[in-house]
Structure formats: C-alpha cells, structure tokens
C-alpha cells in the first residue's frame, strides 16, 4: 500500500487519505480534522480542527446563530455579549464574527450596541479631554474626531509646532467641552485644528 506523509505530524498515512490526517492505525480522519484523530471519519474525534470548533465537533464554518471567535471556535451572541477586554465595553458582531470593535469604515449603531453600521464619511473616534503641553502629549489624539471634555493647549516652546500638532489633531471636528489655549506663544496659527467645527461648551469654567 502506498503511504504518504501526513502534513503537520510526520505520520505516514495511506495514499487514499490524500491530504487528510489519519489514526495511529492508518485509518483516514474526517476532512475537518487537523493533525490526527482517535477515530476514523469522525468530526468529534479530531486532535484539532482545520477550521472551527462547535459543540464538540469540527465544522467548516459556524452554523446559523453562532459566530466565529478568536479564529477557531463558534459562539452564541449571548456568549459574545459577555466577552470583555479592558479597552472595550463589549465586543461586537460583524461579518459573522465576534470581535472587539467595529472594523475600519464602520461604527457601532449606538454606543452600547453590538452591531456595526457603515460610516457616512469619516468614522467618529471619540477621545477623552486632554491637556496638550508637548508634541508627545498630542500623539494620543491621533485619529480622534471628537474630544469628550475639554481640550487644553499650553505649548511654551518648540519649533514648527503647528505642523507637528496638525498630524495628531488635524481630524478633530468636535469638542464637547471648551478649547483653552494658554501661554502658547510658539503657535503662529490654529491650523492644527483645521477640521474643528463645533465647540459645545458643556462645562463652565470660572476664572
């Protein structure tokens, strides 16, 4: 009998198995098995799955009402809603997958939603209010379009600061609080806020 090396294990499998793995006795594994298996042609006996794992079985894709997660298993929407990382409130479901946040070009339909909708133009990126006293401090605002709170700028020294700041703050369109610029004689213009359209002034300041 012709024998072929099983990819990934070094084990010699019968030629009839083709690219499939095989048991220790040379019986062909289920097509969804990866590496090896304990029973022939059984999608519940795989050492690992070639695609996705769901309810004890290896499957080619996640069945209806389940979603791909972490690249190897299928989970329910309820399970996805309970997944948390420190930087994200809840995961979202998009394109049949449970992921930390909406992909580029999409945003959550509501702040606490698990669904994504396509953005109309540039997607909003909301960032917390910040004191900018150096270019390094401004780097955390790169890509931000909405500042939630105040934007305070105090740049006392530096060269070509307008152009430097613009690369990090040039997309800001709205500040929900106030914009305060103090002791910033090195700034020759406000071109670094070229996209700013709205200053809501939600919080009052007393001098």
From TrEMBL:
Family matches, as Pfam families: Furin-like, Recep_L_domain
Xref: PROSITE patterns: 4FE4S_FER_2
Membrane topology: Single-pass type I membrane protein
Record field: catalytic activity: L-tyrosyl-[protein] + ATP = O-phospho-L-tyrosyl-[protein] + ADP + H(+)
The EC number(s) this enzyme carries: 2.7.10.1
Ranges of residues in domain 4Fe-4S ferredoxin-type: 107-137
Name of the protein: receptor protein-tyrosine kinase
Enzyme class of the recorded protein, top EC level: transferase
Main subcellular location of this protein, as a coarse class: membrane
Keywords associated with the record: ATP-binding, Glycoprotein, Kinase, Membrane, Nucleotide-binding, Phosphoprotein, Receptor, Transferase, Transmembrane, Transmembrane helix, Tyrosine-protein kinase
SMART domains tied to this protein: FU
Cellular compartments annotated: Membrane
């Amino acid at each position: 009998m012709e024998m072929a090396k099983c990819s990934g294990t070094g084990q010699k499998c019968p030629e009839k198995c083709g690219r499939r793995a095989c048991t220790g006795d040379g019986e062909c594994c289920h097509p969804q098995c990866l590496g090896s298996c304990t029973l022939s042609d059984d999608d519940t006996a795989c050492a690992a799955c070639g695609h996705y794992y769901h309810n004890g079985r290896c499957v080619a894709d996640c069945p209806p009402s389940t979603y791909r997660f972490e690249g190897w298993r299928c989970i329910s929407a309820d399970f996805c809603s309970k997944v948390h990382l420190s930087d994200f409130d809840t995961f979202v479901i998009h394109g049949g997958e449970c992921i930390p946040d909406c992909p580029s070009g999409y945003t959550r339909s509501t702040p606490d939603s698990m669904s994504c909708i396509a953005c109309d133009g540039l997607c909003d990126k909301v960032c917390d209010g910040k004191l900018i006293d150096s270019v390094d401090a401004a780097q955390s605002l790169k890509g931000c379009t909405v500042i939630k709170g105040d934007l305070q700028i105090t740049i006392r020294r530096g060269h070509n600061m307008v152009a430097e700041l613009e690369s990090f703050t040039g997309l800001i369109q709205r500040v929900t609080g106030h914009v305060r610029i103090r002791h910033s004689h090195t700034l020759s213009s406000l071109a670094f806020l070229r996209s700013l359209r709205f200053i809501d002034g939600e919080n009052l300041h007393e001098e």
